[in-house]
Design a protein that fits this description.
Chain lengths: ~120, ~450
Amino acid sequence: MASHEEITASLLAFQEGYNKNERLKIMNRDWDRVVLVQASDIPSQHTLELRNGELSVREGAPPRADLTVIADSETLADLFYGDITPTEPYMNGTLKIIGSEDDIVRLDFISLMIWGE
Amino acid sequence: MSEVGLKRVLTLRTVVATSAGLTLASSSFVAAVQVAGFLAGDTAWLAILTGGLLCLGAASCFSELNARLPSAAGIRLYFSRAFNDRLALTVSLLYMAVVMGVVGAESYVLASVLSSALPAVPPLVWIVTMYLVVTGMNIRGIKIAGAFQDLITYGLMGSLLVLAFIALGRVGFQLTAPLAPGGVLAFINAVAVGVFLFVGFEWVTPLAEEVTQSRLVSQGMLLAVGLLSVVYALFTVAMTASTPREALVASPAPQMVFARTVLGPAGVFWMVVLSLAASITTFNAGLISVSRFIYASAREYVLPPVFSRLSLRFFTPWAAILTVFAAGVTISLVVLATHRYLVLVNLAAAMESVVYALAGLAVIRLRQKEPQAECPYRVKGGVFVPAITALVFAGLAVAVMFTDFYVSLYLLAGFVILWWYVHRVVPALKSKYQPRRPARRRRPVAEPADAGCEKT
């Protein structure tokens, strides 16, 4: 089981990877979204916010989210560190993403662009 | 933890419209005429309502599975949890192949509709045009919006009912022998093929991630199946009561024969519009489902990673979409050359029956395996509905296979090939492509403990 701090660190690593990628920022200029990242086994919530192509991370839940990512803390930390791809836990039900299908594909794409296959 | 609202949510009206809209297709009229062809008198309605009732059982099972595992992964996840991943993957791959067949049959029927209205344009031109338009839409990420889907589906169902009543009024219809289908075997075959009329109602389950409560998807599926049963039953009775059966059976677009008989050129124009509306949602949804499935499979190395390539401009899986385009056009050309579209209709009916039977079994299995799991919706009456669903649809699948030898052959061959693929090729792909890089995660290093000593 990962701790809340580990999830925070993984999200910051994700943010760092994202912000280094200028191409990704340009591609997401028109994709303003609020993403809630929630652990299912520990009390841990984070907000990822994409606005004008910039990604910010903060602890706690947003008032309203476009996408909600739910998984156990271990999966979330592995996922945002890029140690696992989202597809396998998504297909076996460990990872739940609530939102539109297009947004889910976009999130997967961002992860692919940051961490590779 | 606090409850966070979703910004974009769908209503029950749109869920019903999506479920019914994916099911209503131009090829549905072909299946409806086939159902009537098995039976004597005006008993098609009985077979269609029976098929609808059975699909309500299947819809209940999908509702419970969806409530238990709300995910766009659908049957892949349900069957994987209930049985095992290899079986789930084999069935999902086979199902997607059959969906491609349905798209092939649909394109052929729609091309026949358009060619009968404009004979100067050959069907091949219509088929290629349709694929190009839908592929272009898919690559650009254009989807049918909820409000447009509502308009198409409810407009379509309303129009079919109006047409049915006009036809029944013109012939002064009176039911003759409505309860004498002409034999039990004929009735079973009619119900089995009638399942095709409802193919795709469960494709709405991916919306589980776009609604506030998964019960909306459950209610939507049940309402859609109920509405479709009534519309199909009335329309089929109207077709067979007003138009000679031989003419209907002989045409790949029986709805055009019916419309011309009832309303002349105005009817033809009306039916062209209805067929286009019926096809666009099914055609588009079929291609999207298959291409997204190919993309997701490639992302987990079930298929070569080349299929997971995304368009950097539109964020859509272009490699998967183009693969589906190539496969779809090939299937449609084969159908156009052989005119054997009925095999695809029967194949879809049989495969859908297999999937519904497995859904019933999956409900029972998951209740045993995960009795404590959260499940906001459970089918009432214990295992009765899931067990009946499993038994009846297994029987219907066998009935279709007995009726059409090629269906048994193609399904069996498909299953054996995919079973081999899942057992031999998939592990090789995973071992070749799965990354073996060091973990990036900075795990806390455990303090070394002296062997045999315990710190106090």
